Amino acid sequence: MGLQDMGADKVDLNDTGQYLLQKAKSAGIDQAEVDLTSASGVAVSARLGKLETLEQQHDQSLTLTLYHNQCAASVSSTDWSYSALDQAFEKARSLVGFVQPD
After folding, report:
1. The sheet that has 71-77: what strands, in order across it?
2. Is 79 helix (H, G, I), strand (E, B) or coil?
3. Would you give the distance in Å from CA 54 to the centre of its chain?
4. Could you tell me if 75 and 35 are in contact, meaning their C-beta atoms sit under 8 angstroms apart?
5. For residues 62 and 44, what is the distance between their CA atoms, to the nearest angstrom?
6. Which one is predicted more confidently, 7 or 24?
7. Residues 6+ apart with CB under 8 A from 13
8. Model confidence at 10, in pLDDT bands (50, 70, 90)?
9. Is it the case that residue 8 has pLDDT exceeding 50?
10. 93 Cβ contact list (under 8 Å, min separation 6)
11. 28 touches 91 (CB < 8 A)
């Protein structure tokens, strides 16, 4: 992975987090927390001195926690598309209305 790729991941993390936090603010949520994880790597295996497999891996996940009226609800997703982010937000917003206050 080059430095340009790493920079793009940082921008995506920031944009994704800001998108969800702005949705929470616009919806009147008291507080919101977004935990984003993105990891990339390469797996290499060799046998008898010869390359057998070379795999590039990329994993990402997010957890969104909303706090409203002393209640909290969390949802997780590995899909960072805007439609999936919207669905995750709506699910968390719906759940936070059903839980008992802390």
Report:
1. 31-47, 50-68, 71-77
2. coil
3. 27
4. no
5. 27
6. 24
7. 36, 38
8. low
9. no
10. 27, 29, 66, 73
11. no
Angstrom distances, CA of residue 45 to CA of 6, 52, 58: 24, 6, 18
Q: What pairs with residue 59 in β-bridges?
A: 39
Closest CA to 19 of 54, 49, 69, 62: 62
Residue listed under structure tokens 């790597």:
41
How big is the CA angle at 70 (ends 86 and 75), to the nearest 5 degrees? 30
Q: Please, which residues have CB within 8 angstroms of residue 79's CB and are 6 or more apart in sequence?
A: none
Tokens representing 28? 């009147």
**Across the strands, what pairs with 64?**
34, 75
Determine how β-strand 31-47 pairs with β-strand 71-77.
unpaired
* Exposed / middle / buried, residue 64 (Cβ in 10 Å: 0-12, 13-18, 19+): buried
Count of positions (residues) in the chain:
102
- What pLDDT band is residue 11 in, cutting at 50, 70 and 90? low
Distance, in Å, from the CA atom of 65 to the CA atom of 73, rounded to the nearest integer, reads: 6
